Amino acid sequence: MCSFTLGGSEFLWAKCIGELLVPVAPFDQKSGREAWTVAFAPNGSYFAWSQGHRIVRLIPWTKCLKNFSTGHCGEATNASSPRHLSCQNSNGNHIIPVAGEPREHTIDCGDIVWGLAFGSSVPEKQSRCVNIEWHRFRFGQDQLLLATGLNNGRIKIWDVYTGKLLLNLMDHTDVVRDLTFAPDGSLMLVSASRDKTLRVWDLKDDGNMVKVLRGHQNWVYCSAFSPDSSILCSVGAGKAVFLWNMDKYTLIRKLEGHHHDVVSCEFSPDGALLATASYDTRVILWDHHKATVLLELGHLFPPPSPIFAGGANDRWVRSVSFCPDGRHIASITDDRLIRFWSIEEKAPQAIASLTNGLCCAFSAEGNVLAAGTRDGSVHFWECPHSIASLQHMCRMALRRVMSTQQVEALAIPTPLRDYLTYKVI
């Protein structure tokens, strides 16, 4: 990484390590090409993205990394330049993988794809519909599924390893904007839609719909589970940030602080923090247990007034993602930049140039960030490297099992309590 100075502050340029490009015809300059979503499998085996025009690509992640490091023809390449991954041989045919290797798939979903999510099964996690003994599908421990949310309101469930369609879920009446699986292996799927609802599906019960969560007055853009699957955050138009109890399917509270539509959200790996991104030029870090703002990451300086932030500006934050290390956050904005933040600072730790960025996600290891763009391509960056302190690792271990209120009840010194509750980040 190289550094530069801007406005008296020194920043690092993040290193681009590769790109997945989509061929563009001259007549193809129109909507429908966007990469609205990118996703990594929880076990790090696959990477998926919507490359536009109904197509989803599934590529083994190790294959991506190998091509980025060696180049298309297997020859050593200049490490300072990004690699372009081609998925065809010299004759234009798809490369046939060696027996036993993960297979690459190109899936035609039948309509524009807005949302993607990987889900994996844990056999001991039973379906919540306990009265039904027979199920069409019995998902094993090695099962890996991909859910796709479509423009026509449908959700299609695919087997990642075979590329076959398993389920077609139909109940939404408008675009399915986002999908998220419960991380506990229960294969509970939540869909967020422009029809102003969230719907909960039980894939272990053959995809039956469990509950409709109502409360949003406008489009729902995104949803995210807490690491223990007990809480769901949903965000949408009209400054909406909702927290739901996923054991009772009831609304816990609304978080107020944004001045514009909220379009992206994600919990920290220990579940103590919630990051939300908004068109108001900010990413807010919340203590969702107490509904308080811990940190605001501004993308416009000086900070805009609420009236300006609530209107059109060139700093709309499109996406936010938490790094698995619990210390870094990435955000994408309309000013053609990706910013890598540390939760310990209010200024970006590193930046990268990206035109028309729409979404981002960290790899399972946290060392690579993938970002999708309006032309259907995906770009990959090496994330800033730093070694987490023992204090931070202990804090994460504790916060995985304790809420803010439980930590505050401990008989410990105030400085330690403030550190554990992220008041002193």
TrEMBL record:
Gene3D superfamilies on file: SOCS box, YVTN repeat-like/Quinoprotein amine dehydrogenase
Residue ranges constituting the SOCS box domain according to the UniProt record: 389-425
Pathway(s) served: Protein modification; protein ubiquitination
InterPro entries associated with the record: SOCS_box, SOCS_box-like_dom_sf, WD40/YVTN_repeat-like_dom_sf, WD40_PAC1, WD40_repeat_CS, WD40_repeat_dom_sf, WD40_rpt, WSB_SOCS-box_domain
Domain of life of the source: Eukaryota
Keywords in alphabetical order: Repeat, Ubl conjugation pathway, WD repeat
GO annotation terms (biological process): intracellular signal transduction; protein polyubiquitination
SMART domains per UniProt: SOCS, SOCS_box, WD40
Record bears the keyword Acyltransferase: no
Pfam families hit by this protein: SOCS_box, WD40
Ranges in a coiled coil: none
Extent of the WD repeats: 139-168, 169-211, 213-254, 255-287, 317-351, 361-382
The keyword Repeat appears for this protein: yes
PANTHER family, per database record: WD REPEAT AND SOCS BOX-CONTAINING PROTEIN 1, WD40 REPEAT PROTEIN
The name this protein goes by in its record: WD repeat and SOCS box-containing protein 1
Species this chain originates from: Amphiprion ocellaris (Clown anemonefish)
Underlying gene: WSB1
